[in-house]
């Protein structure tokens, strides 16, 4: 006859087994699709490039050296790889600007949606997500239609007589920025909306009741309460924009390269897979450092309220 | 009586909510009321009677469709809520979750741009007033419901408003705590001398705390008066019915005059009672008798009937009597002495009613 303890033990064993079974698919995906390939990338970054792409199985740190430095063709001295650095800098600054701009545009949008009557919010959210239905490439080419010399903006500017000749918008940092803000805006609006929706708007009334002006209510009540959404939205926008590839390629051309394009170049025409791999890892490192810095800062400023 | 300048005065205030489609909801229908300085004034009524709407109009969260609201004689229509010297204690408390107890209480003063030292002193005084000194650095999520209630009160009182609005502030508390807070609120009102406008649907709360009560129903104020007025001299049947338990008996007026009238009930019994309005002989009217104002007698009384049930309540006993005319009638007797002694189910009894405590109402 089974004692109570034996039954309890068996139940616990069953419980543990079913938990493992349930998490098996997720673990499988993490190992096969994330950690595995990442390991391959790390290994490749320490190999020698093959002549026609691919790699030679020969240990080398050349790829890592040339992430930041370049070897002079004649005297073999090392100097900073200014091209890489300017691309890194452009990527980080454009991504930061994209994050800030999507926040500036996304905040009022999310606030607007969150303050609509409940049954209408779904319609607005639906409208926000509509661009996702279209392929990124098509959306980016549509932006090109707007920005190019005989595109919509220049046509309007000329029709209004503001400018006599087309303004060069395509293949500039501005074009890349505009394209990325357009593409990533929903990624900012959705988390912002999610945390605004949870706000008890009676708190806003309480703020007004206690002599806070609109601006003070925004700064002292709404923003602190939406901070989790701001953090989530910023991360969701910053990371993919740092690795953005299609948008800078189509709208930035060859002059406004970002890290993503540089990496692609190494695996394509550059035929330097180890360098591409090293750059990928470097990109990941930048993201991690930026995240650590950001999260620590926002949690600290939040803590100072208490 | 000298004319005291009212603290808050509503003149013909209406608020119509334009609903979906054609139907508009009249939340307030040309309401006029005058609330005196330093008064504990209660807006009492069932949910949907417009009491909260009136409060929100005074606070400035909503604007009247028609009419005007004066604060110390000044029209406050052009003032946004953050410029009105009025503070609110919200039903949900609406404490700021990202601030401590002390920061919540100091918020209003901070927004008014008061110097730091003054804010600190005032916050200390408020914490003391509501007995919350020890919890000053807690987050609002870390304190109990009753404590949150105190913080909400302190927060609203800290800027020393001219008028304090309280929107059912006790409804979320359990019975015992509610009783405690009722006394606490009364004390605070007395100590601060601020005009309190208190919204509730709890008639007992209204009776025990208020200086004056306005009884509201479907967007109208039916009666304004002291707790005694609305309880013992209700102007309408709704007021009598809403506040306390009441026996209603219908009949025909036989004679009237001098603020009194004689009514003939369906059983043929005649009762002489105070009249809320002028009655014409021959018109129908309702006789209202509070259960505690009626008394069971062994012999003949004003009314006659048979005891149906005797219910013991501890402090008092309710005796349900079926009158000879067929109506149900409840008599409440205090248990200080043996109230239902000598009475049993099925007994034929008389009920005596004092003519000063019974009241005649129009149908």
UniProtKB/TrEMBL annotation, chain A:
Entry membrane topology: Multi-pass membrane protein
Classification via PROSITE patterns: ABC_TM1
Residue ranges of domain ABC transmembrane type-1 in the record: 88-294
Domain of life from the UniProt record: Bacteria
GO biological process: transmembrane transport
Cellular-component GO terms for this entry: plasma membrane
InterPro entries registered for this protein in UniProt: MetI-like (IPR000515), MetI-like_sf (IPR035906)
Subcellular location: Cell membrane
Full protein name: ABC transporter permease
Keywords: Cell membrane, Membrane, Transmembrane, Transmembrane helix, Transport
Similarity comment: Belongs to the binding-protein-dependent transport system permease family. CysTW subfamily.
Gene3D superfamilies membership: MetI-like
Record field: transmembrane: 20-47, 87-111, 123-142, 174-194, 221-246, 275-295
